[in-house]
Design brief:
472 residues, alpha/beta, eight-stranded parallel β-sheet, 16 helices, 36% helix, disordered N terminus
Length: 472
């Protein structure tokens, strides 16, 4: 390494130690070599945290360690011997896997300044339909990067970028580049432009190009397709013959698909063109008949639920969230933000709370969904739904290091006796001390380390103002 690089590294290390980024080795009866808490920290150990592994075996450690090397978890246990390795002090913190979002329209993040719930003119649907055709590829990049940066600071380390404004090949590339530049793991589901006529099929040919160009590293980025719904809604209904054409082309590419599935009769319609299956992720478990639920089970189609949106926006249109019904049928499920432009934030703790509240309201007492299960849905179950179950979602040796450290001593958290209850009932993004994405520490002490938040906000705001000027 060059002398200048060495000097910069030492300066960065001094600043990190001053801010408490790395615990002094003496506190652990070990010695730690100088190391940066940012992207170039090759090996470290998260020491003495309350570790929730989410490994399927129910293994939690009240005082445990997580050893990371080259972005991979190499060990999880008590008092791991790792002499000479940098230490991250996790005392008085909950250590758990990064959250996994399974459905998020990231291109509309910067529109939250104008979206006003279900207002007839400024609600989510009229705004995205009106504004979508005016969004350039540059705008898409700025908005997705804003959403992903907020996601990471909120503890979401894997996202499903459900892109239903893929107007051109350049838009697709811009959204993917924003994901990669910000360092999030995820799936990009190529969709359609908001102005695309319902009788015109999506650009499956360019989807194949995106698959070849971007889809080589399945551990960090996978490619899929987002489809329009064949039942009446705010955006209209795609004809079944067009939908069948799209599904056939996408399956020839061997790619997963996703569709909003919260309308009555939608599952029947998709089944009529052989669209259901493990490769079809349905979104919004609402409005399903008993027959349709059985079709979902028989086809092994997974579901994504967006409880904040489903409770606040679509309950009147589509009914209650059928979490309990699908759970009883063992349908794979994950959680999602849906749109931080519509919900106004990316608080994943609130997503867990909303599903729990919805389920408890239906049952009349806290007898069904438990906080531990809510955390499972937010981590390992979401990872399985997106096909990342062998990569992330739990703290196990061999998996990539997507890890959160949540402070237990904050005023709104303390005292913590049950970590799962604290996370679901009390926690907020502001309680997150450290976010690690693919082994890289991207935030520490609640502050971004790996990206420039001020620049991201400034450029997204400029983009939104320019779009407003074009629309008006």
């Amino acid at each position: 390494m060059c002398q200048v690089c060495n000097l910069r590294r030492r300066d960065f290390m001094k600043a990190a130690l001053a801010a408490g980024a790395l615990a002094p080795a003496a506190a652990r009866a070990q010695t730690s070599p100088p190391a940066s808490p940012a992207t170039d920290l090759r090996e470290y150990i998260i020491r003495s945290g309350h570790v929730l592994t989410m490994d399927g075996a129910g293994r939690d450690l009240e005082t445990g360690d997580v050893h990371v090397r080259d972005g991979v978890i190499v060990a999880v246990g008590e008092a791991i011997a790792a002499p000479g390795v940098a230490v991250i002090d996790a005392r008085d913190m909950i250590v758990l896997p990064g959250f996994v979002d399974t459905h998020w329209h990231l291109w509309s993040t910067a529109l939250r300044g104008v979206i006003r719930a279900d207002d007839p003119k400024f609600g989510y649907f009229p705004t995205t339909l009106r504004v979508g055709p005016h969004c350039s590829a540059k705008d898409a990049y700025a908005s997705v990067r804003l959403g992903v940066a907020e996601a990471l600071l909120s503890g979401i380390t894997t996202v499903h970028n459900w892109s239903h404004n893929t107007r051109t090949p350049e838009h697709a590339d811009a959204e993917i580049q924003a994901m990669k530049d910000t360092g999030v793991r995820g799936r990009f589901s190529y969709g359609w432009g908001q102005e695309l006529p319902l009788t015109s099929p999506m650009n499956v040919e360019d989807l194949g190009r995106v698959q070849r160009q971007w889809g080589q590293d399945r551990k960090s980025l996978t490619i899929g397709a987002a489809l329009r719904s064949p039942t009446p809604g705010a955006r209209g209904a795609i004809p079944l013959d067009v939908l069948k054409q799209e599904i056939t082309g996408i399956r020839k590419l061997g790619l997963p698909m996703t569709m909003h599935g919260g309308a009555k009769g939608l599952v029947d319609a998709v089944a009529s063109v052989d669209g259901l299956g493990p490769d079809m992720l349905l979104v919004h478990p609402q409005g399903l008949s008993e027959q349709e639920r059985q079709q979902v089970v028989n086809s092994k189609s997974p579901y994504s639920t967006s409880p904040v949106i489903e409770m606040s926006y679509s309950a009147v249109r589509s009914g209650y969230i059928q979490y309990e019904e699908l759970k009883q049928l063992n349908v794979p499920m994950g959680l999602s933000i849906d749109s931080s432009g519509a919900s106004a934030n990316a608080d994943y703790f609130n997503v867990m709370r909303a599903l729990l509240w919805s389920d408890w309201q239906r049952s009349g007492a806290p007898l069904r969904l438990k906080p531990r299960r809510a955390v499972e849905l937010a981590t390992i179950e979401g990872a399985k739904v997106l096909g990342f179950g062998d990569v992330t979602g739990s703290l196990e040796a061999g998996k990539r290091a997507d890890i959160l450290l949540v402070r237990k001593t904050d005023i709104n958290m303390a005292p913590v006796f049950d970590a799962y209850y604290a996370l679901v009932f009390s926690a907020q993004p502001s309680n997150i001390d450290t976010v690690i994405a693919d082994g890289r520490i991207v935030s520490r002490g609640g502050k971004a380390v790996g990206f420039d938040v001020d620049k991201i906000v400034r450029e997204a705001t400029t983009s939104a103002l320019e779009i407003r000027g074009r629309v008006t």
